[in-house]
Amino acid sequence: MKTFKKILFWFLIISALIQFIPTDKVNKPVDRKVNFVDIKKTPPKVRELIKGACYDCHSDETKYPGYAYIAPISWSVKSHINEGREHLNFSIWGTYNKDLKKSMLEKSVQTIENKTMPMPGYMVYHKKANLSEAERMLLVQYFEGMLKTKTY
To answer: What is the value of pTM for the model shown?
Structure first.
């Protein structure tokens, strides 16, 4: 029992101390001249879906939930956001070249159809990201329309 109390004591001390290790949660300012939904004049329903299901990880408009301020969870959240922005950042869409835009749209269609995006773990706490089949199809049709008309 004494060993358990020591382990619990040190666990609580370490848990308290790691709260002082910061994670950067400051979003860069968004230039509307290169932001996807602005330059593409995205229809309101599609805009709402993209912002609700994609923008937290794939833009510079991340809205951090309360649990993202508790270490070590905050480290994982920030890592996922950084990785998401590396693959696709809607906030800087206008800076990408045509080949990259095409590739990103194709990958977006694929991940939406395969239900690998939004990530299942993310959808548990973000109800807007839990897309219905009709909403998934609307996004797929929107992105495929851009691919067909080469208006990316």
So the answer is: 0.84
Is 149's pLDDT higher than 90?
yes
Residue 109 pLDDT more than 90? yes
Residue 9 Cα distances to 2, 18, 98, angstroms: 11, 14, 56
Peptide bond into 43 cis (omega under 30): no
**CA distance linking residue 69 with residue 146, whole number of Å:** 37
Cβ atoms within 10 Å of 43's Cβ, excluding its own: 12
pLDDT class of 14 with cuts at 50, 70, 90: confident
DSSP letters for the chain: -HHHHHHHHHHHHHHHHGGGS----PPPPP-TTT-HHHHTT--HHHHHHHHHHTTTTSSS-----GGGGSTTHHHHHHHHHHHHHHH--GGGGGGS-HHHHHHHHHHHHHHHHTT-SS-HHHHHH-GGGS--HHHHHHHHHHHHHHHHHT--
